Amino acid sequence: MTALKLLDAPSAALWGANAVNGVINIITKHSADTLGGYAELGAGDYEQGFIGARYGTKLTDNASTRMYIKGNRRDSLEHNSKDLDSSLVDASSIVDKSNDWRHLQFGGRVDIQLENDTSLTLSSDYYTSKMNQASNIASMDEPQYRTFYSEELETEGFNLLSRYTKALSANSEYTLQTYYDFADRDEELYHLRTNTVDIDFQHQLIVGQDHNIVWGLGYRYISDNLTSMSILTSSEPGSTQTHLWSAFVSDEIALMDDALWLTLASRFEHNDYTGFEVQPNIRLMWQVDTKNSVWTSIARAIRTPSRVETNLIVNALNIPPSDVSPTIKVFVVGNDDYESEEIISYEMGYRFMPMNSLSFDTAIFFNDYDKLRSTSEGTTDFSTYPDYVSQYTYFENQYDGYNYGVELSSMWTVTDLLQLRINYSYIHNEFDDVLGQNTKAPEQMVSSIIDWQPLTTLGVNFVWRFIDSTESLTGEGTRYKTIDSYKGVDIALNWAVSPDIMLSAYGKNLFYPAHLEYEAESILLPYRVGYSYFVKASINF
C-alpha cells in the first residue's frame, strides 16, 4: 500500500453520490516497488489463524507483476442475551449464535510501461467466504411471532480492472479506467447476484500559473438478480438493471502564490432512482505563514436510494393478537417516489505548527440533513380478517435534523524513537424523534496513541480510546436502545529478529469488559466485542 487517505467529510464533488460522511482511498504500490517475496503466518483466540504470501517480479525491462494469496479464520463474537429484547430471549435460545467466518482471497496485477509517457495497469482479485450467523424474521409462530434460525451463508466474487494513463505534456495527463465486478451472496433470507461495469475517464491539466484543473466523465451499469423468502418480495422483476452517468470538474485556483487557494468543484450525476443530481463543493485554504494555516469548506452530498427503499416489500414485524385485535402483520413498502437524502456541510479548520515536530489541529462543523428516511402509516388490509390484518407502512423522506461539533488532534514527535498523538471529538445531534434509521453518533470520543521504539529492533504501539454512549435503533426497528459507553486498549510489540524476519504480538480491547458497539437495523442479533490476542511471524525474501 502506497497511501491510505481518510477524508472524514462529504466528498461527493469528486467521488460521487453516497460519499456523505467521507471516503477511504487506498492507493496500492506499483508492482515494480514490491519485487521479491513476503509471507506471514499468525494465530490467536479471535483471529484463530491467518496466512498470506506475496511475490513480485519483473517480466521484462518495461513490465512487472505482483501476485498474492491470503486466508483467515475468525472465531465468533460474544452474544449476551441481555442485549436482546426480553420477549425474544426464550425463542432465541434454541439456535446456535456463532458468527465465526472463513475467508480466502487471491489476485495480482501487471504494470506495463508502454512508452515513456504511457502506462497500463491490469489487475484482478477473487474471494470466497463462509460465515455462520443467527437471524430472526417475522412469522406466525406463537408466542413471539418471530422465528429464529442459524445458517452458514456463502459469498464469493471477483473483479477485473484496467487503467491506461498517458501524459500529454508536463502539465497534462489523462487516465481511462474500466472495471468489472461480480458478487454473489447466498443466505436463507435471500440470494443476490450483482454484475457491475464501471468506465471512468479523468483528465488533469495545469492552465497558466494559477489553475490546477481536474475533470472527468463516468458511466456505471449494474445488473442484479434477487430471489428471497416470502417475507421479502419486490414490486419489480427479480432481475433489474440500473445506469449511472456522471461528470465532475474541480479547479484549484492559486489566489496568492504559496499562500491562498480557492477550490471550486462539483459533480453532476443522473441515476435511475432520482434522476439528475448536483453535488458542489467550495473550499478555501490560507497558509498564513510557516506555522499557521486556516481552511474552510461548504459541500452538498446525497445518499441515493437502494432497492429496499424503492421497490421491496418486507414483512418486518408481526404483532401478537390481543383481546381486541387479531394478529397484525406490519409490512414496510418501498416507494418509487423516494428521494435522495441530502446533507449540506459547513466546516472550518485551523492548524498550528510551533515547530516541525509538534502540530495542533482544530476543526468545527455543522451538518444540515434533509429528506432523511422515515416511515409513515399507509393502508390497512382487512381481507384476511379474522386470521390477521395487514398494516402497510411506506418509506418516505420526512426525517430531517442537524448536528454540530468540534474535532481536536495533536501530534508530537518527541524524538526519532517516540511519537505521541491524541484525538478528541464532540458532536451534538438534533434529529426528528421518529424511528427511521440510525443517525445518532456518540457525543464524545477520545483516543491516544504512542509509537515507541525503545531498541533498534523493538517497536511498541499503544492505543487507548473512549467512546461515549449513544442510541441505536433495535434490530426489529420498533424502538431505540442505549449503547453504553466503553473503553479499550490495544498493544502491539514488533521484534525485528533480523532485517528480513519480524515477530509480533498483539492484544486488542484489553483491560475492559466485553461491550456492545452497535446494533444493526436488520434481523441479525447483537454481539459484544471483547479482548483478543494473536501472534504473527513475517519474512521478506
Task: Tell me about this structure.
It is a single chain. The protein is mainly beta and 541 residues long. The protein has 3 helices and 31 strands. The strands form 4 sheets. The protein has a 22-stranded antiparallel β-barrel. It has a two-stranded antiparallel sheet with strand order 1-2. A hairpin with a 2-residue loop joins strand 23 (444-455) and strand 24 (458-467). The longest helix has 4 residues, at 12-15. The chain starts with a strand and ends with a strand.
What are its keywords?
mainly beta, TonB-dep_rcpt-like, 541 residues, single chain, signal
* Radius of gyration over all CA atoms, rounded: 26 Å
Oligomerization category of the chains in this entry: single chain
**How would you sum up the major sheet?**
22 strands, antiparallel, barrel
Helicity level:
under 10%
Unreliable runs: none
Number of strands: 31
Category by helix and strand content? mainly beta
Strand % is over 45%
Overall pLDDT confidence: 92
**What does the overall shape look like?**
globular
**First-to-last CA distance:** 18 Å
Q: What is the tally of helical segments?
A: 3
Membrane topology: Multi-pass membrane protein
Pfam families: TonB_dep_Rec_b-barrel (PF00593)
Keywords: Cell outer membrane, Membrane, Receptor, Signal, TonB box, Transmembrane, Transmembrane beta strand, Transport
Subcellular location: Cell outer membrane
